[in-house]
Design goal:
128 residues
C-alpha cells in the first residue's frame, strides 16, 4: 500500500547505475520523500531541477562519472546537497565537494540520517 506524501516533502534524486540497488534504495526513500531515480550521469543531469533538495550520487558511473556530475550540479545550484555513494575508501574522494560520503552497502539508518540532516525532513525515523 502506497501512502501519499505531502507536497512539501523533500525531493531526492538517487543516481546509481546498479539498477537493483537504486530501485531498492528508492523503495526505502519513497516512504518519506519524493524520489527520482537515474541510472546514469547524463540521466541524472536531465532529471535534476530546482525542486531537488538532495542527491545521492554514485561515484563510479560509466560514461559521465559521479565526480563530473557533482561538478555540474554545483555549477547549476549552490543549495543542492550531495551525498556521494562509493564502494571505495573515503580518501579517494577527499577533495570532492560532496556534503557527505557514504560507503556501500548503505543501510536504512545511514540513508535516512542523511535525508534528515540535509533536508527539511523532520518525519519520525521508523525502520521496519
Amino acid at each position: 500500500m502506497t501512502r501519499s506524501l505531502p507536497s512539501e516533502a523533500p525531493t531526492v534524486l538517487l543516481v546509481d547505475d546498479d539498477t537493483a540497488l537504486a530501485d531498492s534504495l528508492a523503495l526505502w526513500l519513497e516512504r518519506r520523500v519524493h524520489v527520482r531515480v537515474a541510472y546514469s550521469g547524463r540521466e541524472a543531469l536531465q532529471s535534476f531541477d530546482e525542486d531537488v533538495d538532495l542527491v545521492f550520487l554514485d561515484q563510479n558511473l560509466p560514461g559521465l562519472s559521479g565526480t563530473s556530475v557533482l561538478s555540474e550540479l554545483r555549477h547549476r545550484s549552490e543549495t543542492v546537497r550531495v551525498v556521494m555513494l562509493t564502494a571505495t575508501h573515503h580518501e579517494d574522494l577527499s577533495g570532492t565537494p560532496a556534503d557527505e560520503i557514504l560507503t556501500k552497502p548503505v543501510n536504512k539508518e545511514e540513508l535516512f540520517a542523511a535525508v534528515s540532516e540535509y533536508t527539511a525532513d523532520t518525519s519520525e525515523l521508523v525502520l521496519d
